[in-house]
Amino acid sequence: MDRNLALEIVKEQLTEHRYEHTLGVAQTSIELAERYDANVKKAELAAIFHDYAKFRPKEEMKQIIIEQQMPQDLLEHGTELWHAPVGAYLVENEVGITDQNVLQAIRFHTSGHEHMTILDKVVFLADYIEPGRKFPGVEEVRELARKDINKAIVLCLQNTMIFLLKKRVTIYPDTLNTYNTLLKQMKKGGS
Ligand code: DGI
Ligand code: FE
Ligand code: FE
């Protein structure tokens, strides 16, 4: 799909602030895809649509999770997690994107996943470090992102989990599994 059409479609789903964030994620995804040899066009498309479902009513998202037989444990964790898998579903069924690589990058963009492709990693990291983000510690993640995408994602997950622990909310198993898997792979690889 042409980028201008994609942006036009997603703009209608988002607030001005979230649309600006989306533009930042798209630009950062292009840069990371070039650096780490992911498909640049797919990275841009997944980034444009990654938060497509962000403002859907919780009831609608809950129904989709149940009816589409998505992992039901999503319902026991924070509602913030829902827009990622529901977004992948809606982008396929409302927008007509069928590329499974793109849909998976959208699906995994909030929690990560044990088995992430380089495309998934690019979009996940871009969402965290795009220029509009002001999280404490984000600059350190931006620096790591220039050298080692796995190390950057581990730090990003570390920050997110500390944030969740401080808020005393549950950590979704995929979030923890992503962290554990990347750390184990990095140890094997000697870094
Ligand atoms: O949609 P964005 O704000 O751009 O970013 P995102 O899709 O990464 O969502 C971030 C939110 O998701 C933030 O409020 C923290 C929450 N989140 C991420 N991982 C987990 C989580 N919430 C819970 N309860 N458990 C998680 O593992
Ligand atoms: Fe999101
Ligand atoms: Fe986002």
UniProtKB/TrEMBL annotation:
EC number: 3.6.1.41
Catalysed reaction equations from the record: P(1),P(4)-bis(5'-adenosyl) tetraphosphate + H2O = 2 ADP + 2 H(+)
Transmembrane segments: none
Pfam families to which the protein is assigned, alphabetical: HD (PF01966)
Gene Ontology MF annotations: bis(5'-nucleosyl)-tetraphosphatase (symmetrical) activity; metal ion binding; nucleotide binding
Coiled coil: none
InterPro entries noted in UniProt: Diverse_Catalytic_Enzymes, HD/PDEase_dom, HD_domain, HDIG_dom, YqeK
All copies of domain HD, residue ranges: 18-132
SUPFAM superfamilies referenced in this protein's UniProt entry, alphabetically: HD-domain/PDEase-like
Keywords attached to this entry: Hydrolase, Iron, Metal-binding, Nucleotide-binding
Broadest EC class assigned to this enzyme: hydrolase
Protein name stated in the entry: bis(5'-nucleosyl)-tetraphosphatase (symmetrical)
Organism name: Bacillus solimangrovi
The organism's taxonomic lineage, starting at the top: Bacteria, Bacillati, Bacillota, Bacilli, Bacillales
